[in-house]
Amino acid sequence: MPVITNIDDLKRLHRRRAPKMFFDYAESGSWTEQTFRENTSDFDKIRLRQRIATDMTNRSTRSTMIGEEVAMPVALAPVGMTGMQNADGEIKAARAAEKFGVPFTLSTMSICSIEDVRGATKAPFWFQLYVMRDEEFVDNIIARAKNAGCSALVLTVDLQILGQRHKDLKNGLSAPPKLTPRTIANLATKWAWGLEMLGTHRRTFRNIVGHAKSVGDMSSLSSWTAEQFDPALNWDTVARLKEKWGGKLILKGILDVEDARQAVNVGCDAIVVSNHGGRQLDGALSSIRMLPSIVRAVGDEVEVHFDSGIRSGQDVLKALALGARGVMIGRSYIYGLGAMGQAGVTKALEIIHKELDTTMALCGRRDVTTLDRDVLLVPEDFEGRWA
Ligand SMILES: Cc1cc2nc3c(=O)[nH]c(=O)nc-3n(C[C@H](O)[C@H](O)[C@H](O)COP(=O)(O)O)c2cc1C
Q1: Which ligand 1 atom sits nearest the alpha carbon of residue 310?
Q2: What is the pLDDT of residue 214?
Q3: C-alpha distance across the termini of the chain, in Å
Q4: What are the binding positions for glyoxylate in this chain (predicted)?
Q5: What is the whole-number distance in angstroms between the Cα of residue 362 and the centre of ligand 1?
Q6: Is the peptide bond before 379 cis (omega within 30 degrees of 0)?
Q7: Ligand 1: which residue has its CA nearest to atom 28?
Q8: Would the annotation count 128 as a binding residue?
């Protein structure tokens, strides 16, 4: 077993163990992948202030996100097809999150259903909703999330239509994989993945199949998205769904100050500053570059969460210091899951926790809730001057 010391190690193992079409699905951005790349490279431009001779005892990474106690302010982001990276992946990730004491978010496009995850865990989880044209389906899935005791609805507002990811088209991404000579050749080298997959009956989009009318070729994510996602989604829809849900609402996918103000007007509990991990509008600015202006605009009125590009505890610290109350991680835990199942997700959380804790200490701080801009060195032109 290789010695795993950072998230990149998990990524290497994930690449080796999961079928190519699923690793590529995780490891891609839309079109040229500029935004995908800059999400991570822009973090590197921010540096840390080393402080010395401060008491480092009794440190704490505990905080709250939308009023929920968390062992560290890092939630697992909703990730479609997680159960294809590793059999029953959503259940494994939810269990790892529960044990660690951080929130898990289940995607609409998951393999394990809301009921599957509910049956396998005790802690309330968050449910992420994509708005479909079929209102009955949407109302029904909201009711199912309520029944399962989900403690927040994460409404994703940046994917009415799907950004094109070249690799998914070239690989013929589907769940379960369609057996072509190319996929068979690749699957033959992933026998451990295949054996585990044979051991579960959860191999398709179980939140949807059996719940939505007239499901066409459900296995192909891109064609189903094009057919079913509601391109007419607007602020009135958001208000209607907020009413329907009646609980804590998190709006995910805000990257613009004006949209952040609208989100405050509609009365959500938190926003997630996010560009969907660089998978939607290629050419948009990195999420971390947009964070400070959004915090300045609405940080006093709504809880600001952040995602896109976090690969370490240092990145978490930078986002918190720039004003995020908490963050979500996507690929960082998916690499862990694809590498080693539930133990890999736990490993990813442990790595990030340790990096966050150590960095905080070396910056002279003991409490994650007190992190502020003072711990950072941010280049003057970091946010850029864009006209
Ligand atoms: C493979 C993959 C699938 C995703 N599926 C969803 C999804 O179903 N719903 C959603 O709201 N966001 C989805 N996202 C976006 C994540 O929730 C999150 O915004 C993104 O991964 C953050 O960037 P990071 O991966 O750099 O941490 C997905 C991201 C990835 C990588």
Answers
A1: 27
A2: 66
A3: 51
A4: 25, 165, 276, 279
A5: 31
A6: no
A7: 79
A8: yes
